[in-house]
Amino acid sequence: MSDVLVATLAVLTATIVALLLLTAGARTVRLVAARRRHGRVQRLRPLVAQLAAADDDLPPTLPPGLTHHDLATLEQVALDVLPKVRGRGRSQLVDLLVARGLADDARRRLRRPGPVGRARAVLVIGALGIDTATNEVVGALSDRHPEVRIAAVRALGQLSSAQAVDALVACLSAPDRYPAGLVGAALAGHGTRSGAALVSCLHDGPPIARTVAAQVLGATHAQSARTALVDRLAHDAEPGVRRAAAGALGRIGSPRSVDALVEASLHDPSPEVRAAALSALGDVGDTRAVPVLRDAVGHPHHEVASSAAAALTRVGEAGPAALESLAATAATRPGRYAQAALAELRRAGAGTR
Amino acid sequence: MTTVLIADDDPDILELVRFKLETAGLEVVATSDGQSALDAALADPPALAVLDVMMPRLSGIEVCRSLKSTPATAGVPVMLLTARSQEVDVERGFGVGADDYLIKPFSPRELLTRVRALIGRGDTA
């Protein structure tokens, strides 16, 4: 073997050993850092709990002797706790974090080049509920990085200004840039404040926007949107929108929606919409729907028949009574649907007092 | 001393509830999963159980159902802690005998008020 080959092998071996040692060293450093951080979290969590649970009106204060690492960990734990509490506990934590400069720091970091830092800054602004930064968060919706745009949607769900609602509703019209489900969840966080903008979107938005608008109006029990939802159930060209409108009317639960739901359950061309209307009739729970539901248990489409049977279990005493009478004819198709629904009802009630 | 059992797999919430109740003069037994909560309650029935709904091993609903169907713990009041999206679980919880529920995010002060009402300790500091 030549000297050159031996030397090459020696260099290669030394390089591999050095790389292995470097990798092991880096891993050890990471593990030690993670363990130390875990220890700090364990040590500081009670302090954050104490701040969040305090009942006095004094400004929150920190004990002396906390290191730079302690303070950074405490801020992170407090940010993690913020979405889990409300009332005085939440405002105590917000006051502390704002006093520590987190809000100002986040606004500065919004202008930095790294998308991860910008996304985190947007999330901090949302978690702290800094409404005065709504403009900056709305601006982040146009960021070229999707993680920043998504963070901005989440943050706008936590800010209380009307501008935040309008910006979120506008996002519904661009589902390729903003996931519609995420925007819907953010809008639901605004409760009935978003009602008027969503009703407008019900009429003017693209199909996905109209669908999500109907779902959010239902989730927030927006009574004021009932007429608009009835209109969409009767006239929207998209079955998905009509289905969402039926579901929303069920969640709103007004007996005044019964006629519109009955009409859809009988005459809508889509079986899925008929099924949704029948299910909504069960949610409303008005006994006027019992004859329609009973007849629908005999529908040839599986989803329609099973939705009708399940809905009957939720309509007072008359619904289950209608199912009992159908179940008596066990050999028939409606009889089997009725038996299945009654069995489910008994299972659900098995643990009741 | 009056004992309250709390069960939540979120350590932040567990610590917060523990602190709030202990500073109000209550003794707290804290667990982070449903099975441990059930074991603790059966071994020494508390004056009240505060249960998260979504927990590992056993859900708060299942723990509540077991407590209410066991003679030794049937009288233990149960409060469910749940996220708003799990309101359907609250309906199921009442179905299996839960006495109260609190939706997350929650106010620590409201939690204590409800705990006092459930255990009938209006004199708790």
Produce the secondary structure layout.
The complex is a heterodimer of chains A (353) and B (125).
Chain A: H1 3-53, H2 68-81, H3 88-99, H4 102-109, H5 115-128, H6 134-140, H7 146-156, H8 162-171, H9 180-188, H10 195-204, H11 207-219, H12 226-235, H13 239-252, H14 258-267, H15 271-284, H16 290-296, H17 302-312, H18 318-327, H19 333-349
Helix pairs in contact in A: 1-2, 1-3, 4-5, 5-7, 6-7, 7-9, 8-9, 9-11, 10-11, 11-13, 12-13, 13-15, 14-15, 15-17, 16-17, 17-19, 18-19
Chain B: E1 3-7, H1 11-23, E2 27-31, H2 34-43, E3 48-52, H3 60-69, E4 78-83, H4 87-95, E5 100-104, H5 108-119
Parallel strand pairs in B: 1-2, 1-3, 3-4, 4-5
GO molecular function (chain A): oxidoreductase activity
InterPro entries (chain A): ARM-like, ARM-type_fold, PBS_lyase_HEAT
Pfam families (chain A): HEAT_2 (PF13646)
Question: What's this model, at a glance?
Answer:
The complex is a heterodimer of chains A (353) and B (125). By secondary structure, chain A is mainly α. Chain A is built from 19 helices and no strands.
Description:
The complex is a heterodimer of chains A (353) and B (125). Chain A is mainly α and 353 residues long. Among the domains of chain A are: 89 residues, Leucine-rich Repeat Variant; 88 residues, Leucine-rich Repeat Variant (Alpha Horseshoe), CATH 1.25.10; 61 residues, no CATH class. Chain A is 71% helix and 0% strand. Chain A is built from 19 helices and no strands. In chain A, helix 1 crosses helix 2. Chain A is elongated, with a radius of gyration of 29 Å. The termini of chain A are far apart. The model of chain A has no long low-confidence stretch (mean pLDDT 88). Chain B has 125 residues and is of the alpha/beta class. Chain B has one domain: Response regulator (Rossmann fold, 3-Layer(aba) Sandwich), CATH 3.40.50. In chain B, 43% of the residues lie in helices and 21% in strands. Chain B has a 5-stranded parallel sheet, sandwiched between helices. In chain B, strand 1, helix 1 and strand 2 form a beta-alpha-beta unit.
